[in-house]
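Case study B.
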Amino acid sequence: MREEELRAVRSGIIGACNAHRLANLLFASIEVGLYDQIPEEGATVEDIARACNLDQTAARVLMQSLAATGILAAQGRRFFLPCEYAQFFGAGPSSLLPHIRLLHEESEFWSRAAEVLRPSYDGPLLADVQFRSDAVGAYMDLVEWNNRAYAALLWDRMSDLAPLLRQVLDVGPGYGYFSSTLLQRNEQVVVTFYDLENALGRCRQRHEGQPYTDRIRWECGEAPALPYDGEFDVVMANDLLHYFSGAEKLTFLRAAHKALKPQGRFMVVKFHLDESGCAPQNAALFSLKMFLTTHKSHLETDEELEMLARDAGFRNIERIRLDELKTLVTGIN
Amino acid sequence: MTTPDEAWLDSWARVITMGAIFQPANIVFAAAEVDLFSRVPEQGATVDEVAAAVKIEPFGARLLLNALTALGMLVYREPRYHVPPELRPFLTPGPETVLPNLKRFAYENGVWLRMARILRGEEPAPADYGDEFWHNYSDKYPGLKGFNRYCAGKVVKANRETITSATRILDLGGGDGVFAGWALDLNPSASYLLVELPDGVKCQADLARHVESGRLRFQTGDARTFEHEPVFDLVVMNELTELFTKEEKALIVRRALNALAPGGRLMAIKFSLNADGIEPASIAMLSLRLSLMRPGVYLETDEELGLIFRDAGFDPVDVRQVYLVEPSAEGAGRSKKCVAIGRKPA
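Model:
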């Protein structure tokens, strides 16, 4: 290999590894409360140093670094928050501050990944953070932002089935966007939302006052222990099974099988992961993240889910790619 | 044309991506920490073989191996994982290895996670944070030493006249010997005194012939307290000023002035940083990295370095940039060095 190529490979490795600095820069700027102190007319280093209780050198290098990454803009002695970012660093409905604080906590876990991977690890888990009462809202927001667009895609693909449905069980619905799309398209369907109490409370708030609210039932419980028997036309569990171990996935699918009426259908929208478990990149990384989150779970490959569904008693199982990132796995009771 | 919604999504994605960019880095850190790459022989290894070697249960090991494969750090050919041949020299022990660098980045990440508290003075950085800057790293980070040798060569060649016209050269903080080696080769008539912190001189073997000829001598000292008769024609400070606070920068420049003979010159070399302190971005981040070592430390801009020289009494002062790669070539955020040269009035 030529010298320049070697240097490029080396730079690639080093570049990927020192990228942590960008995230940590963002975390620190939020932790010192920097964005609260930048009015529309901008702020000087001295203003920020005083307001954020930093010495001037610290404030200057912090702000220069943020300007270097494009998060701040500099004009003369003043630093500004570019208008395209202002809403994300303010206190309004588009604020990303809670979510970035959550990522900061997540990063602490990733920094101990080698330790968490050891079989002897018995320390705190990322799941403890994500489902903490002050963090669960931010976590659910992130999940929703990543997945909401797939609700319409799912029901577009299942457009023949959607009008025929009368009883649907939505397990681990998050904010319930998959079901709300169905409830709007089919005025006769009744949906049961089934989730942990903490998450269900937030979901309930989201649907208050909607015209379809009286067609929602609310049930609290652990997903692998579904208590139903032959009641539903469809059981959905979208972006859920990655929280479970292999054994729990199978237990859940058997419980879903039991909850369905004859000819009922289970539907799972999930991150696509190929047979190797290595592609696409985001899904392979997500699978490792789930292990770091719970110390037992992973994102199953699409093939693995099909086999588990078969073991649980489903037939006519199909894997349908919704796009390059997501797969719908569905089967009949 | 971008619609407002798409612009919003683009900005949103940039912020979230920046917040989550730690994931790939930490995957590589974890692999380096458990010494995974060294445990994958050229013929590859299965999950179970790797798991046993690195003492991780197979389930977690598979997820780690898959993530590394997804990042392109491994290749999977069922049932074995392989280190790609082009990466092997860097990821396994040897002269090209970057494993010590990766471990250092992992350590740095732990410190940077606490950046806000350190910048506020609520807690200090660990005592050994920044060791790679303060203490001679050349035995621990051979790849980095190679890079610094390359940079020093570019600077020496671009300042040939200044170096060849000196007969007595003082090098403050040059314990890795990269500048001394080039300068002594270029100027066969120069004698060279290299001043470094205790245990900081690590270049005796590299420069043995210059030591044996008596042209190169070593002395223990600190640039902030160093004193010498004013006999030198040239004082060199290669990557030194950035390790100090504003007041200390001024102090070491005055110390250098005192050691120069009338008409002698001070040459300070550092990474180039524009007057606004923002470009190049990687060097702005280097300044932040240095500032976490201890309160008040930062990388000065090129303009500020010139002012420090003038305030100390150097006249004239020339501040210029030396390209490390051709300006048209791709990449290389650290593509320029700043060289400030000041003359002590006769």
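The mean pLDDT of chain B is 91. The remaining cases will be described in the next quarterly update.
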